[in-house]
Amino acid sequence: MKYITLYDYTEVESQGDLKKEDIIRYLEEIENRFSSKQREIIQIYAECSSIEPDSIKIVKNGCVQQYVGVIQYQPIGREPVQIKILPRLFKNKKVKESYFLNYLLEKTKHSKFYLMKNFWVSDLQEFNYRDLLTLTFDYYVQRSMSKGYFSEYRNFQQNDMKLAGKLEVSRHIKDNLSQGTSTRMAYSQRRQTVDNYFSYLILKVFNEEINTDFLSNETYIYLKTLQSQLEFSYRDRTLKEILIANDRPIHHPYYQSFEELRRISIYILQNKRIGIGGKDGKEDKKSFSFLTNMNQLWEVFLDQTLMKELRKTGWHDFRDKKKVYHEVETGDHLLKMEPDFVLGKNDEACIVFDAKNKPRLSESMDRNDLYQLFTYTYGYGVRHSGIVYPKVSRETILPNKEWRMIPHDDKVFKKIPYTILELGNSLSKEKTFKFYDEQNQRLSSHLIDWINNHG
Q: Which of 87, 150, 190, 241 has its CA 20 to 30 A from that of 338?
């Protein structure tokens, strides 16, 4: 196995005995396989309604693009490779060792993830392996919901007065007649039921192996309802018994959507890092790898943190009330431009924010970003605007400096750094989460004061 570590928006470099050209070739081969037939778009919540193209670019002109994640890939006739693409912030070891990624994943449950069929689950330590498997489990539960609950025929031994099945004479004599009881009948009954080992399998995952905070409400209710029906029967089953009973694939045409759920549930319960090669080194297991668009992830993260704090103060998302965008005439057609966030009050837009996953903004502004911000400001008729970007630091940095747009100096904007802690693991997870929650509040208060002081 060859191991490759890359960073988004960073030039590919040679690693070990792998030349730059070899790594780029691997990435291009993966791009070619990443077609609409070989992937599935996971939309954890309905808010993710945008449509991605049938193909994506992982590398362009020798530079990694906006996708981060882990891919384990078996090139034909060559040694398998594991490619990790990390956020470039993680080049800083102290950021990589901190709990920022945990916080980001916790806040971006609304984001979109890609599961690539015929790829392999890798060691996803940098990507919070347990939470990502939870998202995957959630997705396949939701895919199966339209079929109801999985049911199958099972034989049940009964001993009562109903006799709704085949009489078992020997057991009837032993359990009833020999005991002087003639009012009950011992019989076996075959019926279709949700009380089966597949149900035990997914309930075992639900109760013991995953982070239920990452489940959608629909999945949580679906599994809770099933659990209430089988509370007493499934808890008596051992893990070994459940895994053995679910060893065979589900072939019934009506329940094909449950097959992937069976597989991911077994992977989770076995607590494996699935690699290349199954039994006897053959690829007899179907699995997947993880990729997500870091630019979209950054936007969703800010929506669920800083923008959420601003909304608590009475601001609202202007686009909730009026679906608006600014049109720019480019000669032969109109270009529709829509900023990431437009906040307002009383049906009036007040401030425009653009989310930029560009740490280098702390040093210099990109001319295209400025043009974009100016266009939004004039298009929406607002005085205030800002670009929110990540900045590695040891403390929260408030954006005290502002820029004015000459000659219209009533238009002002700020570069707003969102601090990513550079403290390694010196802070606990709880204290790290508290820092970011408090930072959201401080930045929110600062921006509101800025707007109010400028009228």
A: 87
